[in-house]
Amino acid sequence: MIALYIFVGIVIIIVVLIAKQVRVYNKAGSIYYKVGVKDKLYSIYEKQLEEFPVEYKEHYVETEYGKVHVIECGDIRFEPLVMFHAASVGSMSWKDNVYELSSKYHLFLVDTLGEGNKSELNDVDIYPKTSEEVAELYKDVTQKLGIEKSHIAGASYGGFICLNYAFHFPERVDKMVLIGSMGIAPSVPKVIAKLTLYSFFPYKILRKNMAKWAFGESSRLDSAREYFSAVLVGVLGRYYAPMTTPQDMLRNIEADTLIILGKNDNLVGSPQKSVKYTSSMKNVKHIVMESGHLINMEKSNEVNNAILAFL
After folding, report:
1. Which of 235, 256, 294, 286 is CA-nearest to residue 28?
2. Which of 4, 57, 104, 146 is most buried by its number of CB atoms within 10 A?
């Protein structure tokens, strides 16, 4: 009986804390619900962007939902490669990939709208809420950048964006690379539930454990963990939540696809299950690497070589 009382007490405490956080979110009027978080994130973003090994230009593309920040680098005479980053790490997370990839491709690194980065929503309650709206948003962005057709690549949530974009606008996609992509494994809803629960309790020890669980302990990921921890402190993401991509959608994606998976990826889960789940895709190739979730950062050389060989 005592154990039951303790359990009920814990549940009540959790519910109260969640209700408190919901009130904070609702009053915020911005994805940045805690004072100072936006400035801190921008400071970290700029510091990491300074580590880019190539020259770059920054753009702000106006859309119906807000302005989308894009980093451009590489020779404009090369084929375009549009890249979508993992959630809560920003486009500067491609810094270990841009030197090699920009030697062959004209890169456009897109900051996901509705996350803690340099893209900004006009209204915190108005953002893409369906697969087609996500695709329409980034079609608008690429069109305004003068891109009619390109290769696309995405890490984690960025891969989920790619899946939606390639399905709804096949005529705009040449080849697609998915790196530790959300949406290709049946475990996605459980992962999102865990991430959401952690976001309600942004305490230091929990942030540290969350970053360790999500990304692993490699020193190559220190910058990602720093940024991710700052996001957990006070950012309420407003974007279409990733879900397991339906089989009929996967089967109807026309683009040749390279899927790169990590053996120790806690978010995507078993590489074998993801390979099996995506085997119905047309012209799909799989590579499994000794890595956690942020494969493009942890195994940057191997990922760069795999992308260049595939494209």
Report:
1. 235
2. 104
